[in-house]
Design goal:
The complex is a heterodimer of chains A (138) and B (117). Chain A has 8 helices and no strands. Chain A is mainly α. A 3-stranded antiparallel sheet of chain B has the order 1-3-2. Chain B is built from 5 helices and 3 strands; from the N terminus they run ααβααββα. The chains are: A mainly alpha (138), B mainly alpha (117).
């Protein structure tokens, strides 16, 4: 009970532990893998926009797995991220489909268009449609 | 052939392509990438395949088995499950439809151009 109460303030302790573990795994990689892994990690933190802890934690565990595997197999860094590291990082985040901060705005846009559509069906055409052509002189 | 165009076009189909590869035989990420390269998808990189595998795993199209490896973390072996094979059927139907339409358009524009000349 007490633990739960604390976690509502600090976030899940289990997640934090996992996150720290995965971060340490990436830092412990031999070069050039540590640099590459940390760079992708940093980008995901900034760009991913994923806000739920579960998804974030899973994402970083998978990222650590990927780079550990690459280091073990000796796969060249370019063979992992390709010509476009940004595209790779974005495809990687998209794969999780977790909650993103932009979701709220997406829902808002959908709702606003729905509302606009309703007005369109119910009422007469908006006044500008009647007045606009004459206002333009044709 | 433009590499950029190839990447763009492949984007929407890669999920199906990876599923089709796994359908042949269960495999782990590196094997799947290697197989695709053998099939002529020369520019595919492991990270892209890895991200796709995560996505199809999240969507419940594959079963995953962790197999210990001699060195490094355990390998995840992916195999197609019932939901995945249903999705793959759908993918092939969509692909046939789309490729037919595009081919028809191609044919149509070419014959129109020929007439015009």
């Amino acid at each position: 009970m007490a633990a739960k109460w604390i976690e509502t303030i600090t976030g899940s302790l289990e997640q934090k532990k996992q996150y720290k573990q995965d971060k340490a795994r990436m830092e412990a990689l031999p070069e050039p893998y540590a640099t590459a892994a940390k760079a992708v990690h940093r980008y995901l933190m900034y760009s991913g926009g994923i806000t739920d802890g579960d998804t974030l934690t899973r994402m970083f565990t998978d990222l650590a797995d990927l780079w550990e595997r690459a280091a073990t197999d000796g796969t060249p860094v370019r063979d992992i991220v390709g010509d476009n590291p940004v595209e790779f990082a974005e495809a990687f985040t998209e794969a999780y489909g977790g909650t993103q901060w932009i979701d709220k705005e997406r829902a808002r846009l959908n709702k606003a268009i729905e509302n606009a559509e309703e007005g369109e069906q119910k009422g007469a055409p908006p006044p500008w449609r009647l007045t606009w052509p004459s206002a333009c002189g044709d | 052939m433009s590499k950029q165009q190839m990447t763009e076009m492949l984007k929407g189909t890669l999920e199906g392509v990876v599923l089709a590869t796994v359908a042949v035989q269960p495999a782990y990420g590196y094997e799947i990438t290697a197989r695709l390269r053998e099939q002529g998808f020369a520019d595919i990189v492991e990270g892209t395949v890895y991200a796709l595998l995560i996505r199809i795993e999240q969507r419940g199209f594959v079963d995953v088995e962790k197999v210990p490896s001699e060195k490094g973390p355990p390998r995840k072996v992916y195999s197609l499950n019932a939901a995945g094979s249903e999705y793959l059927d759908e993918f092939w139907k969509t692909w046939s439809f789309l490729s037919q339409r595009i081919e028809q358009l191609h044919h149509h524009t070419e014959t129109t151009n020929d007439k015009g000349q």
